[in-house]
Amino acid sequence: MAETTSRGSQSEVTDVVLIRRILQRDETALATLYDRYARLVYSVAMRVLGESGAAEEVVQDIFYQLWRTASNFDSARGTLAGWLLVSARNRSIDRLRRRRGIDVEIPAETAGFSPNLETAAAQNQLMAQVNKSIGELPAVQRTALELAYFEGLTHTEIAQRTGEPLGTIKTRLRSAIESLKKGIRP
Questions:
Q1: Residue 121, class by beta-carbon neighbours within 10 Å (0-12 exposed, 13-18 middle, 19+ buried)?
Q2: 19 pLDDT exceeds 90?
Q3: Same fold, 1-117 and 119-186
Q4: End-to-end CA distance of the chain
Q5: Which pTM value belongs to this model?
């Protein structure tokens, strides 16, 4: 696909091409990616943080980070959407942990899959599939997953909150992730 430079046809430009343009300091490319993914990044941050102001700050942080460190993105390791979503989740959890006095960084490699989200329709379809798959998990697995991924609790914290043994929590999370991997197809 040829690189497109006019603002009107940005939806046809691939993420990889836009990243190359960001590396050349093309602000229009960043604006296109922001338009493409900001809503999805915001939804992840909002789910984790539960505060619109904090979620908006995470969105701004993520896209500022993309502007500064676009060279860190490696399309061979996954999609830009996956990279942005993992970054948003990790940044949001870091904020939660700082609120609690726990300052821990989460490596970006913790993502279980890298979805291909080139269009808004694909984003909506994947989110519906994720929600459906999470909804189909047994309640105990779903609760453990939500506490870990959306509230940023450690395995030990989940065990303390639920009153379940640590090994049980680890098994539930492992089983939930495996179920989701099987049920979600990008």
A1: exposed
A2: yes
A3: no
A4: 22
A5: 0.56
Q: Which of 147, 151, 180 is nearest to 164 (CA)?
A: 147
CA dihedral 51, 80, 174, 159 (to 10 degrees): -20
Backbone angles phi, psi at 68, to 5 degrees: -75, -35
Is pLDDT at 170 greater than 60 in this prediction? Answer: yes
The separation between CA 147 and the C-alpha centre of its own chain, rounded to angstroms, equals: 16
d(CA 89, CA 43): 10
Give the separation between CA 138 and CA 80, rounded to whole angstroms: 31
pLDDT in tens, 28-46: 999 999 999 999 899 889 8
Classify domain 1-117 by CATH architecture. Orthogonal Bundle (1.10)
For the segment 81-137, what is each residue's pLDDT rounded down to a tens digit? 888 988 898 899 888 888 766 444 444 433 444 444 445 555 666 666 767 777 788
Q: Where are the domains of the chain?
A: 1-117, 119-186
Q: How far is CA 28 from CA 62, 64, 83, 119, in A?
A: 17, 14, 20, 18
Residues 128, 108: Cα–Cα separation, whole Å: 24
What architecture is domain 119-186? Orthogonal Bundle (1.10)
CA atoms within 13 A on the CB side of 40: 26
- What is the C-alpha to C-alpha distance for residues 20 and 26, in angstroms, rounded to an integer? 9
